[in-house]
Automatic annotation (TrEMBL):
SUPFAM superfamilies: P-loop containing nucleoside triphosphate hydrolases. The chain crosses the membrane at residues 209-237. One of its GO terms (molecular function) is GTP binding. It comes from the Eukaryota. Keywords: GTP-binding, Membrane, Nucleotide-binding, Transmembrane, Transmembrane helix. Belongs to the TRAFAC class TrmE-Era-EngA-EngB-Septin-like GTPase superfamily. AIG1/Toc34/Toc159-like paraseptin GTPase family. IAN subfamily. InterPro entries: G_AIG1, GIMA/IAN/Toc, P-loop_NTPase. Residues 1-206 form the AIG1-type G domain. It comes from Oreochromis niloticus (Nile tilapia). This is AIG1-type G domain-containing protein. The keyword Transport does not apply.
Length: 270
């Protein structure tokens, strides 16, 4: 099963991941203001189950830029392609504020409403639960405090869908790109294990998509700054130039030069 841990910093995502795996794979932090900064993936057999956990940064923390957020969402999609069997939305008991509600809203915006059909809510710090707190309204009542119960519910949800998982056009495109890289690596490096090949393929695809995102974002930003070009046109320019870039910095530099050149050519006729 591929499980994605989602929630804001300090919710206990990494601790939950370690509890599920039974080992300290994900770094945990005592401060609520620090936490996982990059997506991290671990696979282990737990009670006869093969489980792949994707620990994510605080996607939905306030103050994160859209560029940073989109880059990490892209990394998450690369790690969990062709799609997760479940999203584990991690919330702290007793702290369901407007910001926690915003987490749910952001998940719907970042993935889709369909994603919530594959979601389970996991409350951490269960000893702080208010007895009057109603939790049945979240994700069809799929709310948990105990790991074994959580895994059983996840297995049942997957079985009810005949092993199906959440996917969308982006995840399908990512998986297709990964499979292409796997074939290339398998032929060029036949001594590598399947796990090593897929890991390397994921890394290459992730870098490619991140470069593309950097080009689009830089182009849109510069296009808006240089009003003559416009954000949409700048984004298109960045997208095209990023396709052949070998690194994030190269994508940014190429885009800057192209947008600046476009601005100069347009202003000559104004």
């Amino acid at each position: 099963m591929r499980l994605v841990l989602l929630g804001k910093t300090g919710s206990g995502k990494s601790h939950l991941g370690n509890t599920i795996l039974g080992e300290e794979h994900f770094a945990t932090y005592p401060s609520p203001n620090s936490g996982t900064m990059k997506c991290q993936t671990e696979t282990k057999t737990v009670s006869g189950r093969s489980i792949t956990l994707i620990d994510t940064p605080g996607f939905f923390d306030t103050g994160r830029s859209e560029v940073d957020l989109n880059s990490e969402i892209m990394s998450c999609m690369t790690e969990c392609a062709p799609g997760p069997h479940a999203f584990l939305i991690v919330l702290r008991v007793g702290r369901f504020t407007e910001h926690e509600q915003a987490v749910i809203t952001k998940i719907r915006q970042s993935f889709s409403d369909e994603a919530l059909k594959y979601a389970l809510v996991v409350f951490t710090h269960g000893d702080q639960l208010d007895k009057k707190m109603k939790i049945e309204d979240f994700c069809g009542g799929r709310c948990h405090f105990q790991v074994e119960e959580l895994l059983k519910t996840t297995e049942k949800m997957v079985a009810d869908r005949n092993g199906g998982y959440y996917t969308n056009k982006t995840l399908q495109d990512v998986e297709m790109a990964i499979q292409e890289q796997i074939e290339h690596i398998r032929h060029s490096m036949p001594d590598k294990t399947p796990e090593e090949i897929r890991s390397q393929a994921r890394s290459k695809v992730s870098n490619r998509f991140l470069i593309q995102i950097a080009g689009i974002a830089t182009g849109a930003l510069l296009g808006t700054f240089f009003a003559a070009v416009g954000g949409v046109m700048g984004g298109v320019i960045g997208n095209e130039l990023a396709k052949d870039a070998e690194s994030l910095s190269e994508a940014v530099q190429r885009t800057y030069k192209a947008v600046e050149g476009k601005r100069k050519s347009l202003t000559q006729f104004m």
